Each structure stands twice: as structure tokens, then as C-alpha cells.
Amino acid sequence: VGKRENGCGMEGLIELVNRLQDAFAALGQSCLLELPQIAVVGGQSAGKSSVLENCVSRDFLPRGSGIVTRRPLVLQLVTAKTEYAEFLHCKGRKFTDFDEVRQEIEAETDRVTGLNKGISSIPINLRVYSPHVLSLTLVDLPGITKVPVGDQPPDIEQQIRDMIMQFISRENCLILAVTPANTDLANSDALKLAKEVDPQGLRTIGVITKLDLMDEGTDATEILENKLLPLRRGYIGVVNRSQKDIDGKKDIKAAMLAERKFFLSHPAYRHMADRMGTPYLQKVLNQQLTNHIRDTLPTFRSKLQSQLLSIEHEVEAYKNFKPEDPTRKTKALLQMVQQFSVDFEKRIEGSGDQVDTLELSGGAKINRIFHERFPFELVKMEFNEKELRREISYAIKNIHGIRTGLFTPDMAFEAIVKKQIVKLKGPCLKSVDLVMQELINTVKKCTKKLATYPRLCEETERIVAGHIRDREEKTKEQVLLLIDIQVSYINTNHEDFIGFANAQQRSSQVNKSAVGNQVIRKGWLTINNIGIMKGGSKEYWFVLTAESLSWYKDDEEKEKKYMLPLDNLKVRDVEKSFMSSKHIFALFNTEQRNVYKDYRFLELACDAQEEMDSWKASLLRAGVYPDKSSVMYSLCHCFSNWVCWTYWPPLPAAPIGPQWQI
């Protein structure tokens, strides 16, 4: 591209893009790169075909009622000494009779779309060489229609709209919006579509047709002077042949002379006659397209080079394959399977050529499940303290039977503890499910490189996912076995086992003694429940330590807004508002005190569910538990309280002997 640009100058840019269009069309890759071009848009009977024929000075487009243009026509005009036409799908054949060009367009259209007035987005490439044209490339799109005709589908209007938007929504595409002067400009279908993709009118060129058919006493001066609906590239007026002229085979050259005479003689247009008409339109389009190609070429060249490097990288993997080698397919298959295995391992182990910077995935996601999600699931298990007290009472009484017990039986403690340990199965199995799902997601990401071989991709994904699911069952069996082992024997002599004495004190201090006052987490959070009168929701930089939660104006941590001690704090979820997409959790004081200024709750909001779960897990490390109490702590606490109030003598001076401790 660079050599071609430097060698041929500005006048060769359109020819360069024409060659690229032909190359992409032949490869079927026309949508990979956005080539600079001009798309012609307009409603039915707006005069699009006449404008194009005037540019070529030949009758060559199909005409009739209803939708005539049913496939995009890429019309490439090339200045030459002789006049002829060529189709990309008819290589080597030159058309000198333009009636045959029309017939070939109709035949090629019917070949793809059928005879039922259907449409297709596959373009027809036509190149016209002539001494009467300026080098130019236009894409003629189907006219905008409202009502289905014949066997057309009911959504034909939407299909045509989607096809047009596919072309004009590209930033590299100039829009030639053709509008008849005898209709209200505000109702122009072409300008309406153009405004959707080009609201500032930077890429749109307005063409006003049928100026000679306006009601007597009216004119389009305000439109043509770019005052009514301004466009950056302005408007150009043209006068096409009438249907009577076309039926009478009026020569296009004679029609262009009549057009010139119309603008020179009309009192409203004579002052702008030099800026009106088909010859001026050709000149403007040639200049605009050349300048547009020049402006977009650097970006286009970088994209092309990027794709070239990507393709060369893919080709490099197959350079040692010899076509005559009977084992080449087997080698290719083995290489792709080995590459899949390497990619999967790298995603789990954490190393890799391509690092995802948008979200956690693979091994990092599994790490989060183990160290954040699983502990949090354990802590938020459902627990009913009142029900537990009743179970303890029934267990002790049932073990004593008809006797009135003096000491707390070990069997009662074991029965209650075992029942609580069994509840660990739920969070454990849920974590296995989450890990398995992440492994399958990783498999799907790794098989994307096999997308060019759909059957291989599908089978690889099926086999590996099936193996993971087989392992899932065995893993769950092993997890359940480990829990059953713990249930089978309660070792109260273990050094990590604590008795009822000091249970509450140790459970409240264990987290802080483990981590000290070190920083546990930093990140952005939004304080959600500050009223609008006080500034509304605002984002701050939060720093969580083992003893406090502080927030700052920004991540430089110079201007501290507040420091909240974590004593007596708990966390609970808050339902999302239908007006907000954020995920919210709240901190509150268990002693019914205000947490922050006049607020009983401090609502903190995150953008993603994973981020919220991570914050709650970090708060858990700092000793801030969810609203539901910890199971094992509450079990010991309730059991000790029940035993104390039921069996201990009501003597304030009574010594507490070792027999009251497990």
C-alpha cells in the first residue's frame, strides 16, 4: 500500500482502492477491512439510478416498478480512452453494449436472489472504462421501501435497512444521500438514515433531484445553500431525465445540456449554476473520495499490516507441511491438540502469552473460589440460634433418659456437633461446582483457536468437558468422604480444640491476632446511601485493615475522609434498585449505633458481583461477619450458655472446676 501510494500520487488512490475491493470480493473477505467508498442511499423513485447513469453517460441500470436494485452494485468508474465495461464475476469478458450490461446485472441478481424480488447483501462488482467519466467508486444500495411486493418477506423494509446500515455505519464510508426536491426534506428516508450514523453530517453529501418538478412558485434555494439542514459537505442539485425522456430514448448528453440550461435560466438557481449539475457532482465526488482515501489510508494501512502479520503467524505453523505427505493431516491434528493442551495448562497455571486484563479467569478464578468464595459461603450458612438451643436441650435430656443428669454428656455434644459438620457439605459441593464450571469455561476459551475446524472444536470440547464431569463426581465423593471422616470421630483432645471456657473470647480475636493491623484490601467503592442534598452517591478509595475501614478522596491516600473502626460491625446484602446496576452491601453496628455520621447503615456499592463477593470475603478476614452468625462459634457459645444456666449451682462463689470444661 505504501509503495503504491508514493508511486502513483493522489490520482492513483481511487484505482488502488478499486484493486483492493476486487481482491477482497474475490476472496469473499470484503467485510474484514473497511475500504474508503461512497454509498448511494435513497428511497424508491428518488432518482438514484438516473444520477448514476448521468455519471456514466450511459443507460445501463435495470429499471421498473418496485425494488429494482436488489443487490449492492459496486460501480468503479475509470478514466480511459476506450469505452467498455467489465464484471468481476465475468473475468476476461468486455461489454461494449451497455444493454448487455443491464441484462447481466439482472441475470446475476436473479441468480443469487431468485425471481421473487428478494434481496442479498452480496455485491456485484462492475467496472466501467470511459473517456466521459472521472475516476470514482460508488456503491448503489437498494432503495428504501415500505410495503412488501409479490413474494417478498413481510420484513423487507427491515432487511433493506439492515443492509444499508451495514455499509453506511462504517467510518470509512461517505454517504451520498439522494432526496427528491418535490418532497419535504424533513421526511427524507436517506437523510434520516444518514443522521443515525453521522449525526453531525461530517460524512454525508446531499444530492437534490427533480428540481424541475417542484410546484410553481417554490424552489430549493435554502436547501442548496445548506441553510435548512446543514451538512459539512453541502448539497448539490441535479436534474435527471423524466420517465418520458427515458422511454423516448433521450440521449444523456442532450439531457445534461438541458440540465445546464435549466440552472442558468432559473431565477432562483442561476447565481449558483456553477455549483449545480451532474458534471459538478462528478468532480466533487472525485475530489471528496480522493481526499477521504488520503485521510483514512494511514489507519487502513496499519490495520492491513496487522492482519498480514496475523496471517503470516498462522501460516508459519504450517510451513513444514508438505502437500504430498500422506501424514500431514495427522500431524496437523496432533499439533492443534498439543497446542490446546498447552493453552489449557497455561490458563490454569497462570502463565501465558496473552494475559486477560478484563476479568479473572482460569487459575486466578479458581484461586478466588478457594480463598474468598468458599470461606464466605461457610460463614453465611443459615443458622437459627433458638432452634440450636432447643436441639441441645433435647439431646441432653434424651441421653439422660429417666435419670436427672449432673454432668453434660459427651454424646450430646457429639450429636449436635456432627449435625453441624454435615452442613459443611453444601458449601463444599457448591465450590466443586464453581471450580468445574470455570474449568469448562477455560476449555471453551482454549477451543476458540480450533474454530476453523468446527468438528474438531466440538469434539475436543465434548471429550474434555466429559472428562472434567467424570472427575467432578469422583471429587465430590472424595470431599464427602473427608467430611464423613470428620463426623465419624470428634477428637476433643486435639490441641486445636477449645473448650467452652474462652470460646467467645478466642473466636472474636482469632482473626485479628492472625493478621495484625496489616492492610487487607484496597479499592474503589461507592458510598450509596448519602442523600442528594448532601452530595449524593460518590466514589472513594477504600483501605481495609484488620482494625478499621478508611476511605480517601483518591488512590493517592493523602486526603482521608473518614476512618471507621471494625468493632461490633457486621455486613449484610442490600437488594439492587431497579434504577441501578450496582451491587450493594451494607455495614451496620450490632449495638444499634450509627455507623457513619447520622447513618445507621453504610451502604457500599460495586460494579460487579465478583467484586462485591471479594470485598465481603476481605471483611470476613478482618473479623466483620455476615448478619448470619458463624456456625461453630454460635454452636459452642449456645452449648456453653445452656449448660451453665441448666446445671451450674446458683452460687456466685462456686468455683468452676475442670469437670465443666470439655
Short description:
GO terms for molecular function: GTP binding; GTPase activity; microtubule binding. The protein has 662 residues and is α/β, with parallel strands linked by helices.
Could you explain how this protein is built, in words?
The chain has about 650 residues and is of the alpha/beta class. The chain has three domains: about 40-210 and about 225-300, P-loop containing nucleotide triphosphate hydrolases (Rossmann fold); about 340-350 and about 360-490, Up-down Bundle (Four Helix Bundle (Hemerythrin (Met), subunit A)), CATH 1.20.120.1240; about 520-620, Pleckstrin-homology domain (PH domain)/Phosphotyrosine-binding domain (PTB) (PH-domain like), CATH 2.30.29. It has helices spanning about 1-10, 15-25, 50-55, 100-115, 155-170, 190-195, 220-225, 245, 250-265, 280-315, 330-350, 365-380, 385-400, 410-420, 425-445, 455-490, 505-515, 610-620, 630-645; strands spanning about 35-40, 75-80, 85, 125-130, 135-140, 175-180, 205-210, 235, 520-525, 540-545, 550, 560-565, 570-575, 585-590, 600-605, 625. The longest helix has about 40 residues, at about 280-315. About 25% of the residues are buried. Residues about 1-10, about 510-515 and about 630-660 have low confidence and may be disordered. GO terms for molecular function: GTP binding; GTPase activity; microtubule binding. InterPro entries: Dynamin, Dynamin_GTPase, Dynamin_GTPase_CS, Dynamin_N, Dynamin_stalk, G_DYNAMIN_dom, P-loop_NTPase, PH-like_dom_sf.
